[in-house]
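User: Sequence recovery, please. Input:
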């Protein structure tokens, strides 16, 4: 984990033991997301990892879910992944989280440009 990481991360495990290795892996993955896409120092990530149930006929299914609160007045960002391997589920959750954040950032940029274009058109008309 990087020394300048400022995002608060809360990790909870369901139906599995939360080891230091699992916690470190989650923190490492979220640190890379924060470095690339999160600009707010007060961001809060609530992560839950674990087995979905112990009764799957095909074997264990692991779930990783993150609820990211950016404290920017917009809705929370939620990313979920289910895989047959815990670390693959964490990787899938991280990829989904990155996609959601990029989409959110692009949407904001598009709305801002649209507004700027309207203002420009109004100034041209006057």
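Assistant: Recovered sequence (126 residues):
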């Amino acid at each position: 984990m990087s020394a300048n990481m400022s995002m608060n991360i809360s990790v909870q495990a369901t139906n599995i033991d939360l080891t230091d290795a699992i916690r470190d892996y989650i923190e490492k993955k979220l640190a890379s997301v924060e470095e690339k896409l999160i600009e707010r120092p007060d961001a809060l990530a609530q992560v839950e990892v674990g087995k979905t149930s112990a009764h799957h006929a095909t074997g264990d299914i692991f779930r990783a879910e993150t609820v990211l609160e950016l404290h920017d007045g917009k809705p929370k960002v939620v990313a979920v992944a289910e895989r047959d391997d815990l670390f693959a589920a964490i990787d899938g959750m991280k990829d989904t989280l990155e996609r959601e954040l990029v989409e959110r950032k692009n949407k904001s940029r598009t709305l801002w440009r649209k507004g700027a274009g309207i203002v420009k058109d109004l100034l041209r008309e006057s």
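Residues 64 and 90 are 5 Å apart (CA to CA).
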